[in-house]
Design brief:
About 35% of the residues lie in helices and about 15% in strands. By secondary structure, the protein is an alpha/beta fold. It folds into 2 domains: about 240 residues, Type I PLP-dependent aspartate aminotransferase-like (Major domain) (Aspartate Aminotransferase, domain 2), CATH 3.40.640; about 120 residues, Aspartate Aminotransferase, domain 1. Helix 1 packs antiparallel against helix 8, helix 2 runs parallel beside helix 8 and helix 5 runs parallel beside helix 6. The longest helix has 19 residues. About 50% of the residues are buried. The mean pLDDT is about 95. The structure holds pyridoxal-5'-phosphate (PLP). The site of pyridoxal-5'-phosphate (PLP) has 14 residues, from helix 3.
């Protein structure tokens, strides 16, 4: 047992103004899944993500990122029996909505630079699925741990085959790809505000839509698909997916500290950079070039035990654990998950190797100086 308090991988970090927005909701009795905080949070997000002065985006605040993915696939017309392409190395929430719709996930491996969707494997997969008689209905691309995926390469392939992209930006709010904020690159984008994400509403998410009409359709579906009538009339199946006005109040406060918290996460990444500089066998996930800006939601490393005198990922994870510090293996790829064992997979072994040898390190924006010293001393001990 350690005498020290627990250091978490990533924990909620309040800015201070959240409670006043929540208080306002109570005082005006907007304790409902609609109200001024919901509208305000949506416009805060729109202003923050705004691609260019002439181009606008439309955001629907929802109860979760998973709900946003589900609605994006519905709006793209995914039906039972369809196939949907999805990055394999990701959180299960990227893939689950495909199954909700009775569609079939087709998983794609990772490329070694950003650890995201491999464009080469994507192209092979699309051609093979088409040859087998079915063109995939959508491509779900993820910016893992905040690191933007190779979007231009993916877009080129998607354009060539006319398959829309759903951009899973749940971990990448504030990341930038070649001058555009992540979440605004795809045909639809999604964000998450779950407890350990870069900002939190305690639980929540958002859909980033290209047109006012598609946002309108998303909100319609998210509020039980009520037709325009004085009574409750329904011509479609709806969902209860809207964000509560209380949670949206937390989100409004969090938006005020988003850039500050990104700077703090990047500072933590920089500390890891200095610790691992010149260390054989340890690779820190880093921006491949200056056109890519990561929020560094989680700093993650890959350990090659052939170059570290046999010390591996588990050795480091257990060492951290002994000292009451949380670290975590990378996501287990979906094509290796029991629940998706029957789904096709295209790609090499990069995703599998990342799962075997990768570790996420404490990355919170609320780590104290003393926390950072504790983390550093463990890593220095491990590297020795
Ligand atoms: C968190 C996350 C989601 C789901 O978001 P929720 O708000 O938790 O439903 C989806 N995709 C990825 C990559 C995530 O990390």
């Amino acid at each position: 047992m350690s005498e020290y308090s627990k250091i978490w991988l990533s924990s909620p970090h309040m800015g201070g103004t959240e409670q006043s927005f929540v208080q306002e909701a109570f005082e005006s009795n907007w304790v409902a899944p609609l109200g001024p905080n919901v509208t305000g949070f949506e416009s805060d997000l729109e202003n923050y993500l705004q691609p260019t002065a002439s181009e606008s985006i439309h955001i629907a605040a929802l109860s979760s990122g998973t709900a946003a993915l589900h609605l994006a696939l519905i709006l793209l017309g995914v039906k039972p029996g369809d196939e949907v392409i999805c990055q394999s190395l990701t959180f299960s929430a990227s893939a689950n909505p495909i199954a909700y719709l009775g569609a079939k996930p087709i998983f794609i491996g990772s490329e070694p630079e950003t650890w995201n969707l491999c464009p080469n494997a994507l192209e092979v997969a699309i051609k093979d699925r088409i040859a087998k008689g079915k063109k995939p209905k959508a491509i779900i691309a993820v910016h893992l741990y905040g690191m933007p995926c190779k979007f231009d390469e993916i877009r080129k392939i998607s354009d060539c085959h006319q398959i829309p992209i759903v951009e899973d930006s749940a971990e990448a709010l504030g990341s930038v790809y070649k001058g555009r904020k992540c979440g605004t690159l795809g045909d639809f984008g999604i964000l998450s505000f779950n407890g350990n994400k870069i900002i939190t509403t305690s639980g929540g998410g958002a859909l980033v839509a290209r047109t006012k009409a598609s946002k309108g359709k998303a909100v319609f579906l998210a509020t039980q698909a009520r037709d325009a009538a004085p009574h409750y009339q329904h011509s479609e199946i709806g969902y209860n997916y809207r964000l509560s006005n209380i949670c949206a109040g937390i989100g409004r406060g969090q938006m005020m500290v988003l850039d500050k918290h990104i700077a703090l996460r990047r500072e933590m990444h920089h500390i890891y950079e200095t610790i691992f500089a010149g260390v054989e066998g340890i690779t820190l996930l880093s921006e491949p070039d200056s056109g890519i800006f990561s929020n560094h939601w989680l700093s993650a490393i890959l350990i090659d035990s052939k170059k570290t005198k046999g010390k591996n990922r588990e050795d480091l994870r257990l060492l951290f654990d002994q000292h009451n510090i949380e670290s975590r293996p990378l996501w287990k790829p979906m094509h290796l998950q029991p629940v998706f064992s029957n789904c096709p997979y295209y790609g090499g072994d990069v995703a599998g190797q990342l799962f075997e040898n990768g570790l996420c390190l404490p990355s919170g924006s609320n780590l104290t100086h003393a926390d950072k010293q504790r983390i550093r001393s463990i890593l220095e001990k491990f590297i020795l």
